[in-house]
Amino acid sequence: KCYHWSSSGIGGYELQEATSKQANTVRGTKIILHLKDTADEFAKKSRVKGIITRYSNFVQFPIYLGGNKINLQDPLWLMDLKVTRSEDKKEFYKFLTGDILTPQYTFQFRLDSPININAVFYVPNIQYLAATLHNRDPMPKVSLYSRRVLIQHHTTQMLPYWMRFVVGVVDSEDIPLNLSREMLQNNPLLLKMKEILTSKIIRAIENEMETSRAQYSLLFRAIGLSLREGIMHAEDRRGREEIASLLLFESSKRKEDDEITLNDYVKNMQVTQNEIYYLVSPNREGADNSPYTEQLKEKEIEILYSYSQHEDTIMPYLEEFKGKKIVSVEEYINKNLDVVKSKSVEGKSMREFANWFEEVLGKTKVKKVELSNNLKKQPSMLVISDLTKTRQFLQNTPEIGNVWEYMTATLHLNPNHGLVRKIDILRKKQPDLASLIAEQVYYNSLIAAGFVRDSRFMLPHLYQLLDKCIEDSTKSTIITPD
């Protein structure tokens, strides 16, 4: 028998045995849609084709429109990519992204338990990411299918938002075809799929990184900010450490551009070492010459270098990695201060010099000047109880101007440095010039600590210092330290 089903589309339907006229069709089902006057766009061939191509492009039976088959794309995620033609893989990637270049990485995951999953993911090339990743509101580009039928285009449910540098397709037979957009939100099945796929993609990228560190290093330039975003939004320590394993750093023990991971660092740690040390600096030269690294370098302890200001936020939030606490070099210095005792005659003389330095700078700049054994090559450094948080405050509140006007810092001087000793001699002969130089030492320490956003404020002082040097040069004073 043949049955006739009809509905006005407002909630109900009628089902009855078909008349002979209604039953006049070939075997199968014949569907007739009656369009409202306001919906005539759905009678246009281009509109119908667009809908079919978007939602049913990969169904296993052919779909014809005007006598032409229109679902021509094969479901690549159901094939074995190892034996799939490279042309087909490129064509599918182009279908997903519109990008004609080759993707950086291609991953395929096929699972039957605990959830049925067939997925193909791409990490696009650097050029594509540079053009799309950091748009104002970049959309995730992962589409969700069930039995080859599109459930949601560019879904936000399959991968975390920070992983928006990944594009692809996820298909699962466990997802019902009638799953509504409302049911997609916080669906336990999708949440589990999201957890599984996120972890698998991280491990897959890590494997690629180990295969070709140089290739991954280029990609890291594009996705580094996204990875740090992921660390900040990870739900637990395990998730944070998973993502952190993809971060790259330069090292005090390696040449420039020879980058390592946190895993590399932990493997190379000294036997008695329990902490991971890092420094945030604008560049390699600044890191190599930082006064905050001297004590650790003397002990031959490796230091991670980062040139991203975001690390001041990320590393304290990460807190530890593989059971090793993550510590900034400034924090290490604060816990291991070694101040010169003034018991000897020379020590008392240098303490007097430190007091003079304090008077020159005034309490608005520093609360105290100390002579330090921590310094070996650099003449000075600023010590603050929590330098990293102070630097974060500076980055997040540009409107406050000079942050050092709001902080209480101690200036540490290296009593064995030639410049410091020359200033001590000069203050007794040319106190005005010595005072200007002392102030410049303080400003240089601000720069080394990362507190100077715009160094142009120093120009008047530098001109004054140069003027004084030229003025006093006629006196031909030669300064020689003892």
Short description:
This protein has helices at 45-55, 86-97, 126-132, 181-184, 188-211, 213-233, 237-244, 262-267, 284-288, 294-298, 311-318, 329-335, 345-361, 387-396, 418-429, 431-449, 459-473, and strands at residues 3-6, 14-17, 64-65, 68-69, 105-111, 117-123, 141-146, 149-152, 167-171, 250-251, 275-280, 304-306, 320-321, 324-328, 368-371, 380-383, 410-413. The protein has 482 residues and is of the alpha/beta class.
Keywords summarizing the entry:
alpha/beta, 482 residues, five-stranded mixed β-sheet, 40% helix, elongated, 15% strand
SS summary, helix count: 17
What's the number of extended β-strand segments?
A: 17
Task: Describe the strand arrangement of the main beta sheet, using strand numbers.
Answer: 5-6-9-7-8
- Percent of residues in β-strands: 5-15%
Mean pLDDT: 86
The stretches of 5 or more residues where confidence is low (pLDDT under 50) are none
Structural class: alpha/beta
Portion in helices: 25-40%
- Please tell me how large the radius of gyration is: 33 Å
Using the alpha-carbon principal axes, give the shape: elongated
Quaternary structure state of the chains depicted: single chain
- Largest sheet entry: 5 strands, mixed
Q: End-to-end span in angstroms?
A: 114 Å
